[in-house]
Every structure is written in C-alpha cells, then in structure tokens.
Amino acid sequence: MRYSEKTPSFRRCKKTGLLSTAGAHSASNDPLVHKMQKIISDCAKGGFSLAEVSRLSGVRDRQWRRWQSGQAIPRPSNLRRMEKAIVRLCHERDRTIKGEAVLSPVAYRMVLITLADKAGVNVAAVLADDPQSQDKQSPIKAAASLCRQRALYLIVTELNVPLVIAAGFAGITKQAVSKSLRQIEESRDDPHINALLDSMADLIHGTSRSVGLTILEPIQSHQRQEASVKKLREPDQFKRNNSHG
Predict the structure, then answer these.
(1) What is the pLDDT of residues 29-79, one digit of tens each?
(2) Which residues form the domain of 127?
(3) Which of 74, 86, 96, 196 is surrounded by the fewest CB atoms within 10 Å?
C-alpha cells in the first residue's frame, strides 16, 4: 500500500526519517529523531556498533534501516531498549577495564618473578628495582630492566593488556612500554631468547604445567565470569524479534 503524500501517516513517516528525505531535516524537534540521533552518537562515543546494540536490544537491522529511511515509525519502547543496551555495554566495558586493572598487575608480577628466576637473578632485587633510577652501571639494575621489558612484552602480546595499563603498574610511560616491545621483538632473532619467550607464552596460556604455575588462570576465570554475567543479561524479551516496523 502506497501512502499519499497528503495523509498524516505519510507525513509522520517522512518526518521521522533521519536522512532520507528533505522533510526529515525540518524535523529536528521531533523526539523520536532526537532519540535516534542520540543512539548513533552514543554508539560512536562508546565504540559500539549499531548492529551490536540492535542485537542486544532485540531490534533487527532491517527495522533500524526502515526507521532511518522514514518507511516506518519506531516505538518509543524500542528506542528505550536500545538506550538501555548501550548503558549495559558501557557498564560491561567498565567492569572489564577494572578487572584488567586488578588482574594485570598480578599477571605481570608473576611473569616478572618467573623471568628473574629463569635468569638466575635475585627476585627481590628485581621486584624492588626502581625503573626511574639512573644507575645504568649496576649489573643488577640491567638484569632487572631486561626482565621487566620481557615481562611487559609478554603481558601485552599474550594477554592483550593495553599499553597505558601496562605502563601504569610498571611505573613507566606508555612510550617506554612501546620502546620495550620493539626492543624485545627485535631480540627474538636470537634463537635462545625466542625459545625463552615461547616457553613463557606457553606458561602464560597454561599449556606448560611443569613448574606448577598457570599465570593465565586468574585472567581466564575473570573472563568466564564476565561471559556468564553477559549471557544472563540478555533476557528473552530482548531476544524476540519485534514484528512491528
């Protein structure tokens, strides 16, 4: 059924569409248009895709496209569900960041201790070393610095810890972490160093149990808990496809 351009239904659909018609641009005061624009803006700010938000809120991609084009009018409840989905995604992201902030230093410390032990360096001296001190002539400091660089390399590359978080608990700058990563990556041309880092990666991911230490275990446990919580937060009403345009 085609709408006549003079009918209220057609005018309302045309007014609701965000970008598809010239009439849409005159609808800047329409609350539904504002809500849709805010959803798009909040997705961009949070780094979420519209598809992700739509899936979580039970809105089909086709529905969203019809709303944007002015072919259908969204129910306010649909848009509220999308807004709530963005809030939930933000909360989940914040919990993940907080979890990394707690667990990453633990993993870093465990990796650092293991590297120091493998290198035959005094573990207490390595842990007590101040990365900001300038005593470059000290062999203990040189050994501690190398262990620290390798530990940072491993937690960033194997555990995907963001550089800024790694820099925070290591007591150095983000640029220093980036420099350490480049230096350690280049050092892997040495077969012995490459073998050491490979064995540490195996240890981190739990494939080597010979020393009775699974560095990744607390991280994996945290990730499993987050996945369970996320699954529970998708109630049936958000999974149903809304048959109304």
Answers:
(1) 578 888 899 999 998 888 888 888 988 888 888 899 899 888 888 888 889
(2) 95-228
(3) 96
In Å, how far are 175, 192, 197 from 179, measured between CA atoms? 6, 21, 17
pTM: 0.49
Number of domains the chain contains: 2
> What's the pLDDT tens digit per position in 134-190?
676 788 889 999 999 999 999 988 888 888 888 888 889 989 999 999 999 999 999
Instruction: Say which CATH number the domain at 170 has.
Output: 1.10.1750.10
69 shares its domain with 116: no
Helix ranges (DSSP H) in 58-75 = 61-69
In a shared domain, residues 175 and 209: yes
Instruction: Return the half-sphere exposure (C-beta side, CA atoms, 13 A cut-off) of residue 79.
Output: 18
Query: Positive or negative CA dihedral for 213, 214, 219, 221?
Result: negative
User: How remote is the C-alpha of 68 from its chain's centroid?
Assistant: 28
